Amino acid sequence: MKTPSLTLLLQIAGAMHLGLICAGALMPRAVHLREYLTPLPEFIRRLFWVYYTFIGLCLVSFGALTVVFAGELASGAALARAICVFLTAFWTLRLVAATFVFDVRPYLVNKYFRLGYHATNAAFIYLPIVYALAAWKGATR
To answer: What is the SS3 assignment for 70-110?
Structure first.
């Protein structure tokens, strides 16, 4: 794959992280998360929100780094490949969790939630494919 094409695919992947951040920001309201967290001890509630925030910051970082350094990630350099292998593993594991760990069917109560669910799954499929392609085919002219 030519580097400009791979760079564009990576820029799209970086932008997809923004969409996932938006979906993640809407999720607590959609699943009534505060209601479920309220009976938990304060430490556990805070721990959840800290983890939730850190995951969000990771996604923002992954997306920003991918958009800004898409050309470098497509270059095939050793560090670029290592980062792409890491992101491939990250998003592959997230896809596995989405498929086999979480049962969201009770929360897909309207067409918008179902559409959002399918859109996030499409991102979970696209991201590991693009990062794997960059790790494998980077810098092929």
So the answer is: HHHHCCCCHHHHHHHHHHHHHHHHHHHHHHHCCCCHHHCCC
**For the chain, what is the radius of gyration of the CA atoms?**
17
Closest CA to 103 of 31, 25, 18: 31
Block residue for tokens 């594991």: 93
Rounded to 5°, the CA angle 112-62-74 comes to: 110
Element (H, E) at 64: helix 42-68
Per-residue model confidence as pLDDT tens digits over 66-93 = 999 999 999 999 999 999 999 999 999 9
Residue 127: half-sphere exposure toward Cβ, Cα within 13 Å:
30
pTM: 0.90
For CA atoms 4, 5, 10, 12, the dihedral sign is positive
